């Protein structure tokens, strides 16, 4: 009952929630870039990502209840499994390893990365859904947005101790695999009829992307 009330509250006050999200990321980028607070805000990254996921979930207007939750859980499980296989075999994305920036790890892989897959798939689908374009175009648009997001995040991830690449080289294989997995998840959302029209989710995706862009610019300036 409390979860349902929280969901109704966030869905009703979407504009206010979006303002808070913007402020949240503004404080975050300043905290990470300032030497005096860098370590503290770095430690908060896993909690921040988890909090974002909770806000997105609560701001979703569930119409099919268990069915939609099952689909999101499936994306988490598949995404996490793909990452476990990828980081241990180097056969999917390339040769990389996770740091401590995403929290606790099992089989060398933080569960939070599975949650991150759910968040990115859902948020990018939310943005594409608002275009009103045919579903096939929405699928490719959402997947393309995920690749753009990843292309920035890959250069910031080592600084945030999320993951790093062997030889500090990001292989093209990574982006091809990302795009393939992204399309698969986007097709799953459309095929199962999960409604992703969520302004809060769209705002979080944009804020996160700009957050990483600002950090990337900062790294270029100090390098």
Walk me through what this model shows.
- It is a single chain.
- The protein is mainly alpha-helical and 223 residues long.
- The protein has one domain.
- Helices cover 72% and strands 3% of the residues.
- The chain contains 9 helices and 2 strands.
- It has helices at residues 2-12, 14-33, 38-43, 45-58, 66-89, 112-129, 135-156, 172-192, 199-222; strands at 96-98, 163-165.
- Helix 4 packs across helix 6.
- The protein is globular and about 45 Å long.
- It starts with a helix and ends with a helix.
Order of strands, widest sheet: 1-2
Shape: globular
Count of all domains:
1
Note the gap between the termini: 51 Å
Number of E-type strands: 2
Rg on CA atoms, Å: 17 Å
The helix/strand series, from N terminus to C terminus, equals HHHHHEHHEHH
Mean pLDDT: 86
Percent of sequence in beta strands: under 5%
Query: Are there runs of 5+ residues with pLDDT below 50, and where?
Result: none
Helical fraction: over 70%
Summarize the structure.
The chain is an all-alpha fold and 223 residues long. Helices cover 72% and strands 3% of the residues. The chain has one domain.
